[in-house]
Amino acid sequence: MTARLPVTRALAALVEHVTGRPCGVGELPRVRRKSGWDAASAPYTVLDSLPAEFDGPPLWDWHADAAWSYQVTSVGERVDQVEWLADRVRAGVVGRTDGHWTHDLHVPQARVMDRELTYDAGGESSESAAGAIVSYVQRVTITVTSA
Fold it and tell me: Which of 4, 53, 104, 147 is the most buried (most CB within 10 A)?
């Protein structure tokens, strides 16, 4: 069975790479500053794990393949920020060029079989005491098999 943590780490690294912005795993991302670790300033993304599905060869190992699902939430102060981030996430995770993935998603001890964008909600604004926050939710499924 393919472990989830390597897939999560690989996806978070890919999201950071393609957006050029911090990505927190299940929480607000932190960035290193001279004074130590601080909360990242907007825009940024947060990667959350969602329920998974398992499959495998008949009568052998039903957990050989796993479809790990994630939610990527782009967070910013303006709609244009989150739409830009969401465009980068979409192109980076499921974008293809000449029939191949535009960006590699290397998972140690596993082979990525498929990537799918399953939900793309668009921007949603909310007001708080700290000011306006805009978020954009996308859900992706990464299907892997044991290497």
Answer: 4
Question: By C-alpha distance, which of 129, 10, 19 is closest to 75?
Answer: 19
Work out the average pLDDT over 70-96: 95
Q: What is the DSSP letter of 135?
A: E
All residues at 6 or more sequence positions from 97 whose CB lies less than 8 Å from its CB, including other chains: none
Q: How many domains does the chain have?
A: 1
Instruction: Compute CA 8 distance to the chain's CA centroid, rounded to the nearest angstrom.
Output: 8
Nearest to 123 by CA among 81, 92, 64: 81
Task: Report the CATH number at residue 132.
Answer: 3.30.2000.30
Band (127; pLDDT cuts 50, 70, 90): low
Domain that holds residue 45: 4-31+38-146
